[in-house]
Amino acid sequence: MTSDEFDVIVIGGGPVGENAAGRTAAGGLRTALVEAELFGGECSYWACMPSKALLRPGHVLAAAKRMPGVPVGDRLDAAAVLERRTRFTSDWDDSGQVQWAEGAGIVPVRGRGVITGEREVTVGDRVLTARRAVVVATGSVPRVPSLPGLSDVPHWSSREATSAKEVPASLVVLGGGVVGVEMAQAWAVLGAEVTLVISQDRPLAKFEDFVGDLVADGLRADGVTIHTGAKASSVSEVDGGVELTLGDGTKVVAEHLLVATGREPATRDLGLEAFGIEAGKALPVDDTGRVSGVDWLYGCGDVTGRAPLTHQGKYAARAVGSAILADARDPEPWTVTVATADHAAVPQVVFTDPEVAFVGRTADQARAAGLTVKVVDLDIAVAGSSLHADGYKGKARMVVDEDKRTLVGVTFVGQDVAEMLHAATIAVVGEVTVDRLWHAVPAYPTISEVWLRLLESYGL
Description:
Oligomer: single chain
Largest sheet: 7 strands, mixed
Domain Pyridine nucleotide-disulphide oxidoreductase dimerisation: 346-451
Radius of gyration: 23 Å
Distance between the termini: 70 Å
Helix content: 25-40%
CATH class of the largest domain: Alpha Beta
Structural class: alpha/beta
Low-confidence stretches: none
Protein name: Dihydrolipoamide dehydrogenase
Number of strands: 21
GO molecular function: dihydrolipoyl dehydrogenase (NADH) activity; flavin adenine dinucleotide binding
CATH topology of the largest domain: FAD/NAD(P)-binding domain
Organism: Umezawaea tangerina
Binding site for NAD(+): 175-182, 262
Mean pLDDT: 97
CATH superfamily of the largest domain: FAD/NAD(P)-binding domain
Shape: globular
C-alpha cells in the first residue's frame, strides 16, 4: 500500500465532482479527484450530452416542417445522427477530461474510492488522507423494479439507450419520466417502432398536469404508442427480443426493453455505513453540503437526493467547494457557500418536442407549502410564436404567491421554450414582484411576449 495526503478528496469525477474539485483547487487546496469509470461522468457519456445529441436533429426536422418554404425531407440520416452523438462523447474516451483536471491543478486518481476511516479514502492499493474534507459526488444509478423475469432478460438502462450503435427495429420503454419520454421520442424519430408503458395517466406526472398531455400528443405525432395507467406484470425473452406483459394481459413485443423507472443515490459500496448512512439512501446534508453528524464529510449532486439534475448538482458543488474553503458554519442563505435554490428555485428542461421548461413550484406544491396562490394559464399564442412556426402549439402557467405578489413557479411547454427559462428562474430566485415584472418589457416579436399576456391575465 502507498499513501498520499491532500487537503480535499472528491469521490466521483463527473461534472458535479469536477466543479467541487475545481473550486477547492482554484482556492489553493491540494485536491484529488477519484473516478472509478470515465472522468466526465454519466452526464458526459451516457446522459445529458448524448441524449440531447440524439434528440436535437429531430427537433430541427420538426421545426423545418413547420416552416413553409424550407426544403426538407421526411427522415433523418440515422447514421449521421449517431456519429455526431459519438463525437459529443469523444467516443467514450476521457483523456480530454483528465487533461482538463490536470490543467486545473487537480490530481486525478483512477479507481473506486472507498471511505475506510476518518478523512481516509482507499483506492486500490493507495490510501489517501484529507486534511480538510472528503466530498462524495458519485451521482445516481438506475433503480431496477422488482418485475418478474427482469433479472433473466437482457435490457437497456439509460446508458444503453444513449450509446446504442444502431437504431433498433423496435423498442418498448418502461417508465414515463424524463428519460422515458426523451428516449422514446429520440428513437422513434430515428426510425424505431416505439411503445411507451407508464403507470400514471400521463407522462411526466410530477409536472403540471397539462405538461404530460402536450408531451403525449408530441410523442404520438412521432409514432410512439402509449399505454397509460399500465402496470407491467412480467417480462420474458422471446425470439427476436423481449415480451412485456401488462396487468390487463396486453403483451408488447420489441427488440429491446428500456427500463427507465427512476434512479437512486449511488451510495453503495463506499464505506458510508460506518458513518450511519444506509447504502442506497441519500446523504443527509445541510445547505453547505456537510453531512449531518460527520464534520469532515460533504456530499453534492444526485447523491444527496435534493435536486437530481446536472446543473443543480454543479451549483451545489460550487457551494460545497466554497464552504470548504471558508470553513463555513451556518452561513446566510443566498450566499456562495449554500445551495439555497435547491429548495424552491430549481429549473428543469425536458428536451422533447414540444419542450418543457419549468422552475420553482407547481401550483399543487405551492399550495402544499401553505402559500396563497393565484394560477394564470395561457396558450402561447403571440406574434412571436406565430412567426416562429406555423401552427405553433404551447401553454404557459404562472404561479403567484399572492401575499408577496412574487412568482413561485413558471411552466412553459412548446417549441424552443427552454430559451425562456432563465428569465423565469431569475424572477423566482430574485422574488421579483409582478408589479416590477410589468416593467420588464418583452421584445417584439418574440415568444417572450407571453410574459406580457400572463401579467395582463393576472390583472395588471
